């Protein structure tokens, strides 16, 4: 098997595919309220995603994460998941969701062997949830969390740490791991809001987050899985675990094993970089599989050593919204 590798001797076996740019929430750090969505014809089709993954699975990609926008807004998502889960070589499919529409699909996900769910949740307070998301869906999301745990899904709670927004809740989130066998992951804020808004990521970096958690809890370092983006810890007596992701500090770039595909087919070899190429356009121009794979491998081989280099070469005056990147 021909593996996808870059010039820094990193093997790529993990892809994040954003299947839609639409979302039913409007979190300030992710999507502007006046977001202009792509026309359906601009998005990757069912057939294009399947073709891409059939091709990449032959080149060593064995893990897929489905993202958005909110993936459950895509009407053919379940059919797509069934198709992808049946591909030879695909060992793991995970989904990142906001939990608003997720609960009713849990049995079908289990039938497909999909058990890894990342739930985006930035507050445990109902009124603050509405301020952050501009939607009144807190109770629904918490019901989804309860149902995921009840069905023995492997749940990670993704919490973006934002200055003067939810930093007063870090200890409350950590307390969740006492009650639930979940991984609560605190993520440094990133500048991908599509609005050029002020950015607090440097203030609340992963070290400050850890220092705050240690004011109440003893954190025992536990081994990080290969290619992990999170620094992982366990609080004695708790069922779950704590993770801190240096998304802005970018301490994990040296072991990066992933690429991203945006809803419109942009291939990103780094979250902080521009699209390296567009797989949608190449497929619609009639490119055959061998040439398409060669183009992808060439783009991967040319990727930067880390997110700082990629950002330095990204000449967009305003960062895209995370919902478009599918980060």
List the helices and strands and how they pair.
Blueprint: E1 4-5, E2 11-12, E3 14-18, H1 46-57, E4 63-67, H2 77-85, E5 92-97, H3 106-111, E6 116-120, H4 126-133, H5 138-150, E7 154-161, H6 170-179, E8 183-188, H7 206-213, E9 220-221, E10 231-234, E11 241-245, E12 258-261, E13 266-268, E14 277-278, H8 279-284, H9 289-301, H10 307-312, H11 322-325
Parallel strand pairs: 3-4, 3-12, 4-5, 5-6, 6-7, 7-8, 8-11
Antiparallel strand pairs: 1-2, 9-10, 10-11, 12-13, 13-14
Question: How is this structure best described in words?
Answer:
With 327 residues, the protein is of the alpha/beta class. The protein has a single domain, classed as TIM Barrel (Alpha-Beta Barrel). Helices cover 29% and strands 18% of the residues. The protein has helices at residues 46-57, 77-85, 106-111, 126-133, 138-150, 170-179, 206-213, 279-284, 289-301, 307-312, 322-325, and strands at residues 4-5, 11-12, 14-18, 63-67, 92-97, 116-120, 154-161, 183-188, 220-221, 231-234, 241-245, 258-261, 266-268, 277-278. The strands form two sheets. It has a twelve-stranded mixed beta sheet with strand order 9-10-11-8-7-6-5-4-3-12-13-14. A two-stranded antiparallel ribbon has the order 1-2. The mean pLDDT is 92. Keywords: 4Fe-4S, GTP-binding, Iron, Iron-sulfur, Lyase, Metal-binding, Molybdenum cofactor biosynthesis, Nucleotide-binding, S-adenosyl-L-methionine. Residues 7-226 form the Radical SAM core domain. Pfam families: Mob_synth_C, Radical_SAM.
């Amino acid at each position: 098997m021909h593996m996808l590798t870059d010039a820094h001797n990193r093997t790529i076996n993990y892809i994040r595919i954003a299947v839609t740019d639409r979302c039913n929430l409007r979190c300030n750090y992710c999507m502007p309220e006046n977001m202009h969505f792509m026309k359906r014809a601009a998005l990757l089709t069912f057939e294009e995603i399947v073709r891409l993954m059939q091709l990449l699975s032959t080149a060593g990609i064995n893990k897929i994460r489905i993202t958005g926008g909110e993936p459950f807004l895509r009407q053919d998502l379940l059919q797509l998941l069934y198709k992808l889960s049946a591909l030879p070589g695909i060992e793991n499919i995970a989904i990142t969701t906001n939990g608003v529409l997720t609960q009713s699909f849990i049995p079908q996900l289990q039938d497909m062997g999909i058990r890894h769910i990342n739930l985006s949740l930035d507050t445990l307070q109902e009124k603050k949830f509405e301020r952050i998301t501009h939607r009144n869906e807190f109770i629904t999301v918490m019901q989804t969390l309860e149902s995921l745990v009840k069905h023995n899904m492997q749940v990670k709670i993704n919490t973006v740490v934002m200055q003067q927004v939810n930093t007063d809740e870090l200890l409350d989130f950590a307390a969740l791991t006492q009650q639930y066998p979940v991984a609560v992951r605190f993520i440094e804020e990133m500048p991908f809001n599509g609005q050029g808004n002020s950015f607090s990521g440097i203030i609340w970096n992963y070290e400050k987050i850890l220092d705050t958690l240690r004011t109440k809890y003893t954190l025992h370092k536990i081994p990080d899985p290969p290619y992990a983006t999170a620094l992982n810890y366990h609080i004695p007596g708790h069922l779950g675990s704590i993770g801190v992701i240096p998304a802005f500090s970018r301490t994990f770039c040296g072991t990066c094993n992933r690429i991203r595909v945006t809803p419109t087919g942009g291939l990103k070899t780094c979250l902080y970089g521009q699209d390296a190429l567009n797989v949608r356009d190449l497929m619609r121009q009639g490119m055959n599989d061998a040439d398409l794979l060669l183009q992808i491998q060439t783009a991967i081989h040319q990727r930067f050593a880390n997110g700082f280099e990629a950002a330095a070469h990204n000449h967009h005056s305003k960062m895209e919204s995370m919902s478009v990147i599918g980060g």
